[in-house]
TrEMBL record:
This is DUF4402 domain-containing protein. Pfam families: DUF4402. Keywords: Signal. The lineage of its organism: Bacteria, Pseudomonadati, Bacteroidota, Chitinophagia, Chitinophagales. Residues 1-26 form the signal peptide. It comes from the Bacteria. InterPro entries: DUF4402.
């Protein structure tokens, strides 16, 4: 009889232990949220314009136009006293305030032509360079580049057949 009572006590204790574990559960809930930010956009304000350029008949050269609009010449290129229209390309970047963004400039040469003759534009640079910040939701992005002028380059107005692309993406 003592054995039977012991078995009943142990069985009851085991059942109570399992029953107590079942009540030890707890649960909580959470919600899901998302915030859609203002899409980033870019629009052109000014085109890239190297202005008036003169070149030596037998010596090639370059015109470097900084993102700030300053020009310098190398090799057989000179910059006439009458500069013509000189402008770095300018863009307005808009989006979510205080967000940063990455800037991607053309990595290949852009060909400009007068319909017969060509020159190339290379080495694009920008201010800001690489990354910008939309402090108040907008920022001006200026782009300069290098114009490669051949020796004896024919006179004329040279324009790109297709525009160059500047891409911006949120970081």
């Amino acid at each position: 009889m003592k054995k039977t009572i012991c078995k009943i006590v142990f069985a009851t204790a085991a059942l109570m232990a399992f029953h107590a574990t079942g009540h030890a559960q707890a649960s909580a809930t959470a919600t899901a949220t998302a915030t859609i930010v203002t899409p980033i956009s870019i629009s052109k304000t000014d085109n890239l314009n190297f202005g008036n350029v003169a070149v030596h008949a037998t010596t090639a050269g370059t015109v470097v136009l900084s993102p700030g609009g300053a020009r310098s010449a190398t090799g057989g290129v000179t910059l006439p006293a009458t500069p013509g229209t000189v402008a770095a390309a300018s863009f307005t970047v808009s989006g979510e305030g205080n967000y940063t963004y990455a800037i991607t400039l053309p990595s290949s040469a852009l060909t400009i032509t007068d319909g017969t003759n060509t020159m190339t534009v290379t080495d694009f640079t920008s201010t800001p360079n690489g990354t910008g910040t939309l402090s108040s939701g907008t920022q001006t992005l200026n782009v300069g580049a290098t114009l490669n002028v051949a020796a004896g380059q024919a006179a004329g107005v040279y324009t790109s057949a297709a525009p160059f692309t500047v891409t911006v993406n949120y970081n």
